[in-house]
Design goal:
Elements (H helix, E strand, L loop, with lengths): L2 H10 L1 H14 L11 E4 L6 E7 L1 H4 L10 H13 L3 E7 L5 H8 L10 E5 L2 H5 L4 H18 L4 E4 L13 H24 L3 E2 L20 H12 L6
Parallel strand pairs: 2-3, 2-4, 4-5, 5-6
Antiparallel strand pairs: 1-3
Helix pairs in contact: 1-8, 2-8, 4-9, 5-7, 7-8
């Protein structure tokens, strides 16, 4: 489907988005960010990999109660398991964060400078908030510039918006309109990654309800494990 058609269909379905979105907000459980360590290391000695994750509630690992169930830890573990080398990791995420909020309020507070890889998990809230594509282009594009300036030696990897039709909490109409918006966000984000020296990863491959948290929207322990393994392939090349 063309981007023009996706945009038109999403706006035509805006009343469905508004009505079903309001109903969903009233009944969905609001999960809290994880109160767990935000940095650590797997293995001894100087780490061969230093991984930073920046982003929204997925990086904040909402609803998780064990470190082993969080996204950043699972990325680091997968890299460590594949290579046998030491991996240092740091996560910095904010619940409901959009690309511009990550750029302005999260990135500036990262003290370290020597990361080998920076993984960005943003776009879902930009999509969910119906941000216009030119708005996302400016927010995400300048976020990429800011990361490149701050960490010039790091490989930047963007993990885009997942397939909304797979989310068990979303009614079919809302999932459909959000899938149109996700396609637009992902297409523009991929273009910006290609233009600005970042890698575009394929969306998270969660196909089963067991991969979600109890709210049916965020990833759960199995989902973060799958996601971590998936993203590790962009760090450790076969």
């Amino acid at each position: 489907m063309s981007n023009t058609r996706s945009s038109l269909l999403s706006w035509l379905m805006f009343p469905v988005y508004a009505w079903q979105g309001i109903q969903l907000r009233r009944r969905i459980e609001r999960l809290l960010p994880a109160f767990l360590p935000h940095s650590g290391q797997l293995g001894d000695g100087d780490p061969a990999f230093k991984i930073l994750t920046l982003g929204d509630s997925t990086v904040a690992s909402v609803g998780m109660e064990e470190l082993e169930h969080t996204l950043t830890f699972n990325i680091a573990k997968a890299v460590h398991d594949k290579t046998g080398k030491s991996v240092a990791w740091r996560s910095a995420g904010g619940n409901s964060a959009t690309a511009d909020l990550v750029r302005d309020y999260i990135l500036p507070h990262i003290e370290e400078r020597d990361f080998t890889h920076v993984i960005i998990a943003v776009g879902t809230n930009d999509m969910k908030n119906f941000h216009a594509i030119p708005t996302f282009k400016k927010s995400f594009g300048t976020l990429l510039y800011a990361i490149r300036t701050r960490f010039p030696q790091a490989q930047i990897i963007w993990t885009p918006v997942a397939d909304m039709t797979k989310f068990p909490s979303l009614p079919s109409g809302l999932a459909k309109v959000l899938s149109y918006r996700a396609a637009l966000i992902n297409a523009k984000g991929k273009q910006l990654c290609e233009e600005r020296g970042a890698l575009y990863s394929e969306p998270i491959p969660i196909e089963d309800v067991s991969g979600f948290a109890r709210d049916g929207f965020h990833a759960g322990p199995d989902g973060y494990r799958i996601w971590g393994e998936h993203l590790s392939r962009y760090i450790v090349k076969d």
